[in-house]
Design brief:
The structure holds 2 protein chains of 2 kinds.
Chain A lengths: L3 H18 L6 H12 L4 H11 L10 H10 L11 E6 L2 H19 L12 E6 L11 E3 L2 E3 L7 H6 L3
Parallel strand pairs in A: 1-2
Antiparallel strand pairs in A: 1-3, 3-4
Helix pairs in contact in A: 1-2, 1-3
Chain B lengths: L5 E6 L2 H4 L3 H14 L6 E6 L10 E5 L3 E4 L6 H10 L42 H6 L4 H9 L2 H11 L11 H10 L6 E6 L8 H8 L1 H15 L3 E6 L4 H16 L15 E6 L9 H8 L23 E5 H13 L1 H5 L9 E8 L5 E6 L4 H8 L9 E6 L5 E4 L9 H6 L8 E6 L4 H15 L5 H18 L7 H15 L3 H5 L2 H9 L1 H9 L13 E4 L9 H5 L5 E2 L7 E2 L9 H5 L5 E4 L1
Parallel strand pairs in B: 1-2, 5-6, 5-8, 6-7, 9-13
Antiparallel strand pairs in B: 1-3, 3-4, 9-10, 11-12, 11-13, 14-17, 15-16
Helix pairs in contact in B: 5-9, 5-12, 6-7, 6-9, 8-9, 8-10, 9-12, 16-17, 17-18, 18-20
Classes of the chains: A alpha+beta, B alpha/beta.
Chain lengths: 165, 594
């Protein structure tokens, strides 16, 4: 059960996102990204809200919840499952891999006791891999929320994570 | 205007941000407030002070002292020494030294910069910097001195070809879109640079966004388009921000909007941000994503120049293609086509990575040989090792060997050799790379990125990966190579878009040039490069081992036995081949055998 206060909040968040990106088909991905940014994922209720608020027979705009869900499940950066308070995105591509990325990845997994895509039981951390961030000259690279860390070594992991305590 | 006795510039490029540039800015502000200097000294955020290799980097004017490598904790000390006591802090001072490893350093031998000429030279967030170096003059020339047909002819005769990798002549594409009798028309810029290790377009977007915008406006004039989209991947937040600033400034100066330069030509532009899907770099998938759909490719024809965004004629080029255009218009097609080979003109940017001395971003003229790129521009193979192969064209490209080193950089020459130009990733591998493992690595990537729309790609890449994994695990059987070849042909022939069609390329090219490595894995259960874990074993060599027990103490599975001062032994059954023993041995007594 979603608490009624959260319901009202979702209504407002969706409304703000639609106002910002426009009431049109090409705004769907930006709108969903915006909601994802606020909650860390897209709550089921939000699909319902987006469908209702976008509904505009005069301008021939109809979207289904299924259509919205299919978008959210297609794009890696949109999540349909709740995520932790902080999301760690680790670049596991070749350029980071060859400069010691694997050791950093192992250290992260061990420290948080998580596998790729999992969230800690206290909902503090989510660990995922990301596609290449293009910061190959300072690899290995990881991203925590919107903060970038470069030239990361396994020894730095406790210190970096400690900044979010 | 306020007067400051000193200015402190802090580099806030992504590399420096990743190392805490914002914390440095905050710490500087706090400390200047604490010391009562805030009215005398101004802190400014800027781009590209140095190479960012030792970030964060700051520059203090008027002295011109360049500091780097400090953390926020060092700032109180730095402020006290430099700004209160007037003493230069040598510890953090950047001494001018030859550039070794950075993204974009001074011009390297044999480099020619056309696309990258402004990167690091101008402030990307200030349109006046771009105007000061003749920016938007090409647009003026096109609008006032040339007809749209003349612009297309100029681009066509310059020989500029699509820099996204496929190499379709840009002028021809523009001509096709112009011909179609349907309105409105759209311009699309593909900035969804997804190949791992390729970041040429990011550098251009962050360092010289107006060259891309100007190229798009000229293109729009030529094809008759009225609206444009730059589709940029969400992994490049700085590029998105820079582009948005640049577009707003271009609009303010009248380069975008209605009646550009007082003519009756109207064109406007917006940035579309992706949401993390590699396949969106494919043009039909990209356009689907712009329209708010799943980024799934659709069959061509109809080609985008006939039916693209919103079912209307759409011209789609990549970042590098557009950013070449202003210079072609202002300097002329003859200048551009004077560089390169008969079929491939101009320059190409590459992100060189892997086992080379000087990795990073380069721009070289077409026609240069791979040997020149690897051994002169990129400084040769690291640690004196032997060159083995170079992977061009990203995950859909192929591996080229020693015999291809003298191949000129040319779209057709690379394709004939079994690889492709691609968008510009270049991974150089030395003798310690296992080619089966490399093929598996790339297949792992394409398999994960397959959008799943068509069966050959969705299932085929999965099956190819499983076969490769089996061979790497030492479980390969007679007939697997043939099965692999068959499967690759099917996937490449029957897939809908370039992702599936190109996915088997790394397998094709490694099978062609390194078949003996596959055979060694399957028939001799041996990995010649000693990479594949299941096929290697660690051994302790008797004369070198001193019996110090360091390896035994560090072994996570207690696979090493032996008395103190006696030669140790590794039990192959228990060993998990993690390689820790080899790293910790002080006497180089542990070797890898296959």
């Amino acid at each position: 059960m979603v608490a009624p206060t959260i319901d009202r909040e979702i209504t407002a968040v969706v409304q703000a996102a639609i106002e910002k990106h426009g009431k049109n088909y090409d705004a769907l991905i930006p709108i969903l990204s915006e909601i994802n940014h606020v909650y860390g994922y897209i709550p089921g209720k939000a699909f319902h809200e987006v469908r209702q608020q976008l509904h505009d027979p005069l301008n021939q705009i109809f979207v289904s919840e299924g259509q919205l869900y299919s978008l959210a499940s297609f794009y890696d950066m949109l999540s349909t499952k709740p995520r932790g308070e902080h999301v760690i995105k680790f670049c596991e591509n070749a350029p980071c891999h060859v400069v010691g990325g694997k050791a950093v990845w192992d250290a992260l997994k061990e420290r948080l006791n998580l596998k790729n895509g999992e969230t800690t039981p206290d909902a503090k951390w989510t660990l995922v891999t990301t596609s290449c961030l293009g910061l190959c000259s300072v690899g290995p690279v990881l991203l925590i929320d919107d903060d970038m860390y470069g030239n990361v070594t396994p020894e730095q992991i406790p210190d970096i994570l400690g900044r979010y305590e | 205007m306020a007067f400051y006795r000193s200015h402190v510039l802090v580099c806030v490029d992504p590399e420096c941000l990743a190392k805490g540039a914002h914390e440095i800015v905050d710490a500087l502000q706090d400390e200047f407030v604490a010391q009562g200097l805030i009215d005398e000294i101004q802190v400014l955020e800027t781009s590209r002070i140095g190479g960012c290799a030792n970030g964060p980097e700051i520059m203090v004017y008027p002295e011109g002292i360049h500091y780097h490598g400090m953390t926020a904790d060092d700032i109180p000390f730095l402020v006290e020494e430099h700004f209160l006591k007037g003493r230069v802090v040598e510890r953090f001072r950047e001494v001018v030294k030859p550039v070794v490893d950075e993204e974009l350093g001074p011009l390297r031998p044999k480099e020619v910069r056309v696309v990258l000429r402004n990167c690091g030279q101008i402030d990307p967030n200030n349109i006046e910097d771009y105007l000061a170096i003749d920016g938007y003059q090409a647009l003026g020339k096109a609008l006032f001195e040339m007809t749209p047909e003349k612009v297309i002819e100029e681009v066509l005769s310059s020989g500029l070809r699509g820099r996204g990798g496929a190499g379709f002549p840009a002028g021809k594409k523009w001509g096709l879109t112009r011909q179609v009798n349907d309105n409105p028309k759209y311009m699309v810029c593909n900035a969804d640079e997804g190949d791992p290790g390729a970041f040429m377009n990011r550098r251009v977007l962050e360092g010289d966004p107006h060259s891309v915008i100007e190229g798009m406006i000229i293109g729009a004039y030529a094809v008759g388009a009225s609206y444009g989209y730059i589709y940029c991947r969400a992994e490049y937040p700085v590029a998105v921000e820079t582009l948005n600033i640049a577009i707003a400034q271009a609009r303010e100066f009248g380069f975008l909007g209605n009646n550009i330069f007082g003519t009756d030509f109207n064109f406007d532009l917006e940035v579309r941000v992706g949401a993390g899907a590699f396949v969106c770099g494919e043009e039909t998938a990209l356009m689907a994503s712009i329209m708010g759909k799943r980024g799934e490719p659709s069959p061509r024809p109809p080609f985008p120049s006939v039916k693209g965004v919103w079912g209307k004629p759409t011209n789609n080029n990549n970042v590098e293609t557009y950013s070449n255009v202003p210079q072609i218009i202002s300097k002329g097609a003859a200048w551009y086509s004077s560089m390169g080979t008969e079929r491939s003109k101009g320059t190409k940017t590459f992100a060189v990575g892997g086992n080379v001395v000087k990795p990073g971003l380069i721009e070289v003229p077409m026609g240069i040989t791979l040997r020149e790129i690897i051994f002169e521009v990129a400084g040769g193979i690291k640690d004196g090792k032997k060159y083995k192969a170079v992977q061009t064209g990203g995950p859909m490209g192929g591996c080229l060997t020693e015999e291809h080193l003298d191949l000129p950089l040319d779209y057709e020459a690379l394709t004939e050799a079994g690889s492709m130009m691609g968008s510009g990733g270049l991974v150089v591998m030395d003798e310690n790379s296992c080619m089966v493992d490399i093929a598996r690595f790339f297949m792992d990537f394409t398999q994960a990125e397959s959008c799943g729309k068509c069966t050959p790609c969705r299932v085929g890449t999965r099956r190819i990966l499983e076969l490769l994994q089996k061979i790497c695990d030492g479980l390969g059987e007679d007939g697997d190579i043939e099965k692999l070849e068959n499967l690759c042909h099917e996937v490449s022939r029957n897939s809908l878009c370039g992702l599936g069609q190109g996915a088997p390329n790394p397998v094709f090219s490694t099978l062609k040039h390194f078949r003996h490595e596959y055979e060694a894995h399957i028939y001799e259960k041996r990995c010649p490069a000693k990479v594949c874990r299941s096929l290697i074993r660690y051994e302790i060599q008797a004369p070198a081992c001193t019996g110090c027990m360091v390896c035994a103490r560090n072994c996570p599975v207690e696979a090493i036995s032996g008395e103190r001062r006696q030669t140790h032994h590794i039990d192959a059954e228990t060993c998990i081949r993690c390689g820790i023993c080899m790293q910790v041995c002080n006497f180089n007594a542990i070797t890898v055998e296959s």
